[in-house]
Task: structure prediction
Amino acid sequence: MEERTKTYFRTGLGLKKDVLPVLEQEYHSQAVEQLKERGYRATAGGITIRLAEEFGYCYGVDRAVQYAYEAAHKFPDRRLFLVGEIIHNPHVNGRLQDMGITFMMPGEDGRFDFSDVTPEDVVIIPAFGVAINDFRALREIGCLLVDTTCGSVLNVWKRVDGYARGGHTAIIHGKFYHEETKATASQVKLHPNGTYLIVRDIDEARLVCDYILHGGDGGEFLERFGHSCSEGFDPDRDLSKVGVANQTTMLASETAAIAEEFRKVMVERYGEAELDDHYRHSDTLCSATQDRQNAVNSMMESPPDVMIVIGGYNSSNTAHLAHICAQHTKTYHIEDSTCIDPAAGTISHKAVGGQEICTDSDWLAAGSIEVGITAGASTPNNKIGDTIERVLASRGIELDTLFADQA
Ligand code: SF4
Result:
């Protein structure tokens, strides 16, 4: 019902036909299309470029960017705001800022300040969604909302809502500071006694499981998890019934291991017969994340000499792709094609598993070499095409040669 009101749009603004040519022009890559046509592989001057079979923009990002462009076209005379970033891609975010959209970023306390927003303004909600309090605050202001929250994120919210309704603490495998995880965790607030606890990885999950099984010092527990659980969380009260969900972009294998860890511990603590009452699980990894992880896993069965993973340094799904590849081959996580400087012969990248930005020279060994390429769900094809072009240029090879050789 709400979607039909004049101040809330969730399914586009009816301008798809107008903005698609613009999006095509800004984000399309002929090189990427040609590589796909040639079986995701082409060789020139000793360099074989291999493209993962699933990469780049996912359905949720595609839709969010389209709606943001539609909003800018439909309301040229109104102030447009975005809650945070539309997606984790500096190039796309920059384009939206060029179009006059103001990004509202959270303060140090993690809260958004909407005091400048008026009922005449248009506010875009990103693909990650926003926390329930922020959503309510915006509805109260009465501004026009363009909600691009991805359907896969809404699916996680539904699960978490169900857990909270049934008296289960939502155990969320995710990053407590990530926009999507914050929004997901906030869904428990739909229920007066709803509780959540965010675990970052299997090690944190094991600490929680150990507490469930053996108990411990509640104060110490909260010292460790106080920043990633609901207000008033009591580990002695709130861990007897749990439901496991995950941020949509986590590492699939780790999410499965975490769910299994909780299942086992609940069986041990309460017995198999009582399991249904104490444990619930829904795999809420989105299919786009899963497909991209599967594609690199399959590429790593015969790993290229070097792997380039393109995507924002704050992009969760990109970091996980880089993590998978780094187990098998030398991997560079680059934020943008411009991280490769053909003239200087360098590549600047974020250390896999770390925060450090490093610059390597001599990264492209002489002789025959295979360079694998994939990209996180927020990376448009033009940035992938530019990357291919810069890899080749690092050896003085023209992009056209890549396809001429194969003709
Ligand atoms: S990564 Fe998945 S959940 Fe996130 S926007 Fe894309 S499709 Fe939606």
User: Anything to note?
Assistant: Residues 58-61, 127, 150, 152-153, 248-249, 286, 288-289, 317, 377 surround iron/sulfur cluster (CB under 6 Å).
